[in-house]
Amino acid sequence: MNTRTWKLAVVPALLMTLAACSSNQASTPAVSPSPQPTAAPVEASAQPTEGPKITPAPTEAAGVTVGESKQYEKIAISDWKDDQTVVVSKQNDKLGPISSGELKGSYPQSLYFLHLDTGEYELITEKANMMLGDAKLSADQLFLLYSEFSLGDPAYNVMDLGSKKTFTIKGDTIAGAMGADWADKDTVVGPAYSGGAYTATTSMKIAPVEGLGGEGLIVVRQIKDKIYYTSNSKDSLQMLDLKTKAKADLDIPGTTSVIPSTDEEQMLILQYKENTQALLLSGTDGKNPRTLVEGAELGAVSWSPDQRLITYSVTIEEKGTTNNTLYVYDLSSDKSVQIAESNGTMTTSWSPSGKQLAYTERDDSGSSSSIVQLKY
User: Contact at 8 Å (CB) between 363 and 343?
Assistant: First the structure.
């Protein structure tokens, strides 16, 4: 695999104005350039599951060969420890059903490492009457950030994987965490229920971010020494310099998400534009953002480790049916290749080598995950 890191090319000729999805196209969204469709642990007490379903390898397109796909039912993959180990959330029958609330009768979801070579599940953490999920490892893999809920909004926890000590991100100064993402290997950042943003370190120090107090924030992401955010009163992307405390409006209205690149030199931005949504690529200064894709509704955005490939999904609602298609965008060719189709929502995560892509589908029946082999 080519391990070069792909940087943003600010070349006007590469700017792409892409068509929105048309209502008479049920299975192929109007996304330009048009993607070429393809045919498409170690705990003895962990419950066994059925073996993965294998889908034959489709053909090569857009400089990316999409290979064999394996489906794992009734689990949600959220991260990778290494190329043979993924972090998953799945039902834990041993804890017994949830005893009260809107989830009464359902079984709790616990967190595991799934060892792909053996198919065994290694328990990370469990909690009676709780749904645990959205687990992400710190960059040094010493800590795990995850959510838990049984009734109402989720809470966010940080676990030391060595000692298993865990704390919840909450306190008098922030009330609680509305969201949470790793800012670096030792720090979590997100919007606070009390208003503004917070930081929480792995040493359990929780504090509001100076300069962002009071106002309700929606998007909060940290890249190096800058925090990018939107607020209830202003959906344009703004930036706070943590060193100088200076603020700047990056003039990107309708921002709904910011996804930093691995080297923290670039960022992907999801932006609402009237009846469509756009995926933008920009440097961290927010200048000269380049439109990669437009569609009715976009999601499942993530970077490959070498930053050459970007995943995204396009969702179309038609006649009461949701059609969701997952693609990989190749920055070296500015072309996309189709990976999968689904009737539910999708999330994605890359293996450390970039040779495997995991995607999770969620609908009313639950979650299932698939791992696709990629060559480029």
Answer: yes
